Amino acid sequence: MRYASKSGSSFAREVSVRAFLSHSSADKDFVDRVAENLRPGSYELDATTFDAGLVNSDAIRVALGRSDLFCLFLSQASIRSAYVEFETMLGIEFLARGSISRFLAICLDDSAFASASENVKFFNIVRKSLDPEAAARLIQGQLISASSKAQSFAHPFLGREEELKALDNQVSDHGRPPIKGIYLSGNAGAGRRSLAAKFYENHFPHVGRVFPQVSISQYDGPEELYRGILAELRPTITATELRIRMTSFNVANPDEQARMTAQLLNSLLPSNEAAILLDEGGMLTDSGMFSPELTKLIDGLEAYPHPPVTFISGRMIPYRHRVTRTDVAFLAITSLGWDATLRLTSTLLKRNRIEFDVEALEQLASLSEGHPYNIYRIVDEILDKGIKIFLADPADFIDWKHRQSSEYFSRIKIEEVESSVLTLLKNIPELDFDTICQALSVSASALAENLQRLVLLHVLESDGDRFRISPALRVAVERDPRVKMPAQLQADATATVARSLSVRLEEGTAPVSLVDSAVLATVEGGGVLTELAAAFLLPSHFVWLAKLRYDQRQWKESIRFGLGALEGEARLSTNGLVAACRFLCLAAARIGADEVFDVAIAKLHLRASDDWARSNVYYLEGFRQRMRGRLPAAQDLFQKAYDFHHGNVSAMRELAAIALARGHLEAAEGLAREARSYARTNAYLVDMLLTVLIRKRTAGTGTSEIEDLFAVLETVGEESGRSFYTTRRAEYEHLWGDNKKAAILIDQAAAKTPMIFEVRRLQAEIYLKAGNRSRADQAIQAMEKMMESREMYDRRWNYRLFLETKSHYLVEVGQYSEAKDLFSDPAYFTNEERERAIKDIEMAQAYSAKRRR
């Protein structure tokens, strides 16, 4: 099956995956009913799919070779079955060498687990007996995940000789202590996990190919880290057992907690395994060094017979911090070299029997920019379109490559069920197939088809039968207006999730990795905390919800959850506490909740132990002044933030915006250029620099850079209903071209984005120049409503610009005294600025009087 957007973009193709259903003859009736609820061709049933001419043992091997998921049905009968034991051992062997990607055991009676072998107990076991329909849903969820993994499982490993050598040199350096872990940074999809696997294959061939993976979010403290590793390494642990382990962990002191967490990872060494810790914002501090929690964890790791962990992150630790951590090997992974890119592209094309010549190969390699994930994507598109059609018009791929988030997602047609799924996962980060099915009250087959599509489109990621929004697309999904549900339906669905997960976790039918989702759903729904939610509720859950509400512009709710996080301040990680205080400050500044702001900023002051932290504190204090429209005071604070750390792009951007608003064009240009160097295609930064250059332009000067920036802004500034390009082109025509054309353009922008202040400001100026005072007055009235509206979170930020624009109007209608009075408040204008403005008004007044004479 293939999916395409309306524009014709092709996406990943569905991969056929199968589940091998292993059972005893006594359980045949139950398993047959399970199979009836699965899609034809998606399973191997050992009673029916063996070739008649094969001996059973050979048939089992062949069937397993065609499968991606080994599903073992455990009962008293199967425990005693020699064939089931044989199939189980084969399944474990196939899993260890990577031939299958999942192992799932389902208990059909209460005593089956107690009698299961230790080999089986290590894997994911559903201990509560299920009905056939529920068992089928569980298998379907696992198969969706397996289908996405099957596409990339056999990718070849080419190139990276220099990178492997760099790691080799660190590991073999006699002057360094034994390596406890390796740290790999680079863009997602650059091959970080593949390189880690190759490194272990070269240096520690005894280590298996399957690496347990644990994500570390930006708010994770010691408890979250321990629980996440425990749930991943011991998937069969029950909620009751987990609660006992966490109780013991909580009474330990911080050093003992770090030792307990390290011991979990060290427990992988005897079984010849190593884990991957994936950074999702919580691995490093703002200054780029390991967080205090991770530092203590590494101290407790062992190094023999191999490093038990690989750290994977999107950013590299600065050199000054790396040299103090000599027991970790560091490597930044960049794009592939040209030769390696050619080899990988050629290999994948030949493997798929695609004919090509040298010129086509070089074109494809150039388009990939040396990024392995881009190469896989190119091959997928060629399989859908053909190489000639792809090379004739690679616009869709280029479009996807440069804007893999908002625009990519906006071009995907989202069905109603898919919108509901994404709405749930916006608020609750991870859910399993069965819970989603119950919450949305849809059929399992319909849900499976929709989830499969979202996974193949890389909108969702899956692990087992659990699903979450792809990190690369989370912001795009959260902002997309199509992703929504009716308020009552969303409340009901959230309540269903909370109840379902709590019950199933207590029963043991849901994996303990969903504990966080159960807690978040309960808190999110505002219901009474269940015993389970109360036992596992952590301050970091409140930080997550504070961020979520802030991103959704629900400032009061963000404050409520932020204050809830501070109630458990002692249990928050350093990053978690800073994040909670930051969201409190930002939300409080927007609604004028000064008491909340003062409490949060005081805590940040106490934590500001380095230049980066001090920079952030001054930035937040400047943000409060900026939200009040007090630009002179805000500028001083933002300048301090910038002086403490020149890499504070937020402070840099705010300084540029204030300099532009106050007419300091030289300063604005320098800051705008520096800010844009960090994000070349950010619409806000491109627009800011373009605005400066337009206003600095003089008659007869060149416009090449201005036109280049317009070309960028036209691409990135009109997506998702925005009007950057149209507005700025209107200003250019207003100042340097045809004011009539400017009026047409600005009216188009106003129709598209009527509540954007800059659009209305420029509309007033354009119509004043045209002599149309009535239309100018309408624009000013629209601006005034924005200044008065409590719904406009940034209304006071624009107050100074509103006063200046209104003064221009009053001058045009001859109300000079009223125009002068607008500059009287020293909070918005300095004495020098006030005197200059009054002088300009008096000059206009004198000129008008002279004309009348």
TrEMBL record:
Keywords: Receptor. Pfam families: TIR_2. InterPro entries: P-loop_NTPase, TIR_dom, Toll_tir_struct_dom_sf, TPR-like_helical_dom_sf. Residues 20-128 form the TIR domain. The keyword Methyltransferase does not apply. It comes from the Bacteria. The keyword RNA-binding does not apply. SUPFAM superfamilies: P-loop containing nucleoside triphosphate hydrolases, Toll/Interleukin receptor TIR domain, TPR-like. This is Toll/interleukin-1 receptor domain-containing protein.
